[in-house]
Design goal:
This protein is an all-alpha fold. Among the domains are: 61 residues, 434 Repressor (Amino-terminal Domain) (Orthogonal Bundle), CATH 1.10.260; 41 residues. Helices cover 61% and strands 0% of the residues. It has 7 helices and no strands. Helix 2 crosses helix 3.
């Protein structure tokens, strides 16, 4: 008789559910054995620093589930004191002024970035065509292994991510 599956709330199971990945696809992305993914997902082993580093880009884009509102929260009886609200309003105005000052250099950076984005197609057209499916030259050094892993993850992610239409991006 087959054993009933144990459902866990581990980081790997959350990532697999969020991105709709199979254990095999996640093992391929992480560069580890399928059995290792199974052990990590079940909580029988802890992920190494290399696995956590590889998972970091995926976890950064995951949204946290929203907590439901507390139905037992009732407003206090009697008149409310306006002083804490006024202090909060002053703090919010002060923070908004600081954020406006921080925004000015960011707007200038965005303008420069937009200029570079406009020039990029012309710059890329002047380069010889590169085959994105050709891996970098084999190199046993840590930098060479890192370049290969970065290339593999980019190729793997491009193969996994479906192209979005402009309408889908607008929503």
């Amino acid at each position: 008789m087959p054993r009933s599956p144990k459902y866990t709330n581990s980081l790997l199971s959350q990532i697999r559910a969020y991105y709709g990945l199979s254990q095999h696809a996640l093992a391929e992305y992480l560069g580890i054995a399928l059995s290792q993914v199974s052990h990590l997902e079940a909580g029988r082993r802890q992920p190494s620093l290399a696995v956590l580093d590889a998972l970091a880009p995926l976890t950064q884009h995951m949204t946290a589930p929203q907590a439901p509102p507390d139905p037992d929260a009732t407003p206090p009886a009697g008149p409310l004191d306006a002083a804490p609200l006024e202090a909060r309003r002053r703090h919010c105005r002060w923070r908004a002024a600081n954020l406006r000052r921080e925004l000015e250099p960011l707007a200038a950076q965005a303008t420069v970035a937009a200029r570079w984005a406009g020039a990029l197609p012309g710059l890329l057209a002047g380069l010889p065509p590169a085959d994105p499916l050709t891996p970098p030259a084999p190199d046993a050094s840590p930098a060479g292994r890192a370049a290969y892993q970065q290339w593999f993850r980019r190729v793997w992610l491009e193969a996994q991510a479906p192209a979005l239409s402009p309408e889908a991006l607008a929503h």
